[in-house]
């Protein structure tokens, strides 16, 4: 018998993220055994009854709803998990906060900073625990990078560079909008690769290297018109297909970021590199269990890039998994986020990144889009006191 407190989850959506999160709720207590809470899959919600029934059956949700407002109002739901497209985050989060629910919201927090501001206010005035699923912080190799940076092993930081490269929208025949392709419809996604991909790079970057102070961006929409799946007509494409930007961090370091869905051959190539006076780190999602670390303090005879296989028991999160040398994958980052979330909830601590943290990333993304339009440097409004 479990002596853990039940945490009754209301899931909204049945797509990609709803599956990664459901998997995390199911598995978390098996691998992280000291947590005070046990997620209970109470209800799943989407508009199409047959679809959400099939999802609920597959993952073991006890009930379904077809209207998210009903789910949010249910007394037997403790936490609402928002796994819908970006244009739904704001209304669901505000209603959930008013109903006193714990909220776990997918990224990006919102369509824009004004929505984000209202969401932050709503969770703060309701006093409800909240978090945003910037899951790459919970890749063991990225968490190890954070330890290395925080220990000062890189010394003064000069450079940060980061990419997120995909190639799935190159064909002009690909439609926009509707199921599966809402990411290409600006009225649903808010932006293109900036909110979808660069938001991840920016969240990780500010977590590792502090706030971004100003940005100078180029944005491009390579395919200007696509058939909309819902209207059947050719309509203008209003998202950014590709965005490249330079940035200055408040710690004086310089950065280059790039995201695109037109990098033929790359499916999900997220890379990051930091260069400091005493060392450098490099990571890429295609070899996510490795962290490359160069330590200039090594004896010159053996100095070189260490390829750390981040699978040992004393590496972040890895003591909960198999035996040293055996790697874990993408889905585990969500299990780690749930584990950290349940642990923090038990301790009454904030679960980072919170809505307020994610709003800082939202501000940077908005500055990037503004700079792309104006062709000038834009201040993000963040100063050195900001932490995410
Ligand atoms: N953390 C990450 O790495 C990551 C990865 C992918 C997506 N995301 C984010 O997760 C969110 C969802 O993306 P996805 O890839 O899972 O999308 P998806 O298209 O696979 O799923 C979206 C789901 O939302 C549901 N939905 C849409 N409108 C609804 C409504 N009115 N009421 C109830 N349900 C509704 C759809 O039925 C679908 O199940 C987005 O905000 C996206 O940016 C984050």
CATH domain class of the largest domain: Alpha Beta
Adjacency order of strands in the biggest sheet: 16-15-14-13-7-12-11-8-17
Q: How many strands?
A: 17
Q: CATH-wise, what's the superfamily of the largest domain? A: Dihydrodipicolinate Reductase, domain 2
Heteromolecules bound: nicotinamide-adenine-dinucleotide
Per DSSP, the total helix count is 10
Low-confidence stretches: none
Largest sheet, if any? 9 strands, mixed
Q: Alpha-carbon distance between the termini? A: 38 Å
Give the helix proportion (percent range).
25-40%
The residue-averaged pLDDT reads 98
Measured by DSSP, the beta-strand proportion falls in 25-35%
- CATH topology of the largest domain, which one? Dihydrodipicolinate Reductase, domain 2
Name the CATH architecture of the largest domain: 2-Layer Sandwich
Task: Please describe what this structure looks like.
- The longest helix is centred in the last third of the chain and has 20 residues, at 355-374.
- The protein has helices at residues 16-31, 49-59, 68-73, 89-98, 113-126, 140-150, 186-189, 193-209, 330-347, 355-374, and strands at residues 5-12, 37-45, 63-65, 79-82, 102-105, 130-132, 157-165, 212-220, 225-227, 234-236, 242-249, 254-260, 269-276, 279-284, 290-295, 305-309, 378-379.
- The two termini are 38 Å apart.
- β1 (5-12), α1 and β2 (37-45) form a beta-alpha-beta unit.
- The chain is globular.
- It folds into 2 domains: 5-135, NAD(P)-binding Rossmann-like Domain (Rossmann fold), CATH 3.40.50.720; 139-379, 2-Layer Sandwich (Dihydrodipicolinate Reductase, domain 2).
- Strands 16-15-14-13-7-12-11-8-17 form a 9-stranded mixed β-sheet.
- With 388 residues, it is of the alpha/beta class.
- The mean pLDDT is 98.
- The protein contains 10 helices and 17 strands.
- Helices cover 33% and strands 25% of the residues.
- α4 (89-98) runs parallel beside α5 (113-126).
- Bound molecules: nicotinamide-adenine-dinucleotide.
- Nicotinamide-adenine-dinucleotide binds at residues 12-18, 45-47, 68, 83-86, 88, 106-107, 133, 135, 196.
- Nicotinamide-adenine-dinucleotide (NAD) is lined by residues 12-18, 45-47, 68, 83-86, 88, 106-107, 133, 135, 196.
């Amino acid at each position: 018998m479990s002596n853990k407190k039940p945490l009754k989850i209301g899931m909204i959506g049945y797509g990609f993220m709803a599956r990664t999160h459901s998997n995390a709720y199911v598995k978390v207590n098996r691998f992280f055994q000291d947590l005070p809470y046990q997620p209970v899959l109470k209800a799943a919600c989407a508009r199409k009854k047959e679809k959400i029934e099939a999802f609920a059956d597959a993952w073991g949700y006890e009930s379904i709803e077809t209207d998210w407002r009903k789910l949010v109002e249910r007394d037997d739901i403790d936490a609402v998990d928002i796994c819908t497209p970006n244009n739904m985050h704001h209304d669901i989060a505000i209603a959930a906060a008013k109903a006193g629910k714990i909220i776990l919201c997918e990224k990006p927090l919102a369509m824009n900073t004004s929505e984000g501001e209202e969401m932050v206010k709503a969770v703060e005035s309701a006093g409800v625990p909240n978090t945003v699923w910037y899951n790459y912080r919970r890749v063991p190799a990225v968490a190890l990078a954070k330890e290395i940076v925080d220990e000062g092993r890189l010394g003064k930081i000069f450079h940060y560079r980061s990419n997120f490269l995909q190639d799935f929208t190159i064909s002009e025949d690909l439609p926009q909008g509707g199921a599966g392709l809402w990411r290409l419809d600006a009225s649903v996604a808010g932006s293109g690769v900036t909110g979808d991909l660069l938001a991840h790079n920016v969240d990780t970057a500010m977590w590792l290297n502090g706030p971004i102070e100003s940005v100078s961006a180029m944005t491009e929409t390579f395919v200007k018109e696509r058939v909309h799946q819902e209207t059947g007509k050719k309509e203008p494409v209003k998202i950014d297909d590709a965005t490249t930007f330079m940035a200055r961090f408040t710690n004086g370091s310089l950065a280059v970021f790039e995201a695109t869905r037109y990098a033929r051959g790359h499916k999900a190539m997220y890379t990051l590199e930091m260069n400091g006076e005493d060392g450098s780190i490099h990571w890429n999602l295609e070899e996510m269990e490795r962290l490359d670390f160069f330590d200039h303090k090594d004896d010159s005879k053996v100095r070189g890039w260490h390829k750390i296989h981040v699978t040992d028991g004393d590496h972040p999160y890895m003591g909960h998994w198999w035996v040293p040398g055996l790697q874990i994958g993408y889905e585990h980052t969500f299990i780690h986020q749930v584990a950290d979330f349940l642990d923090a909830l038990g301790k009454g601590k904030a679960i980072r990144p919170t809505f307020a943290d994610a709003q800082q990333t939202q501000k940077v993304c908005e500055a990037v889009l503004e700079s792309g339009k104006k062709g000038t440097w834009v201040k993000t409004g963040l100063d050195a006191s900001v932490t995410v």
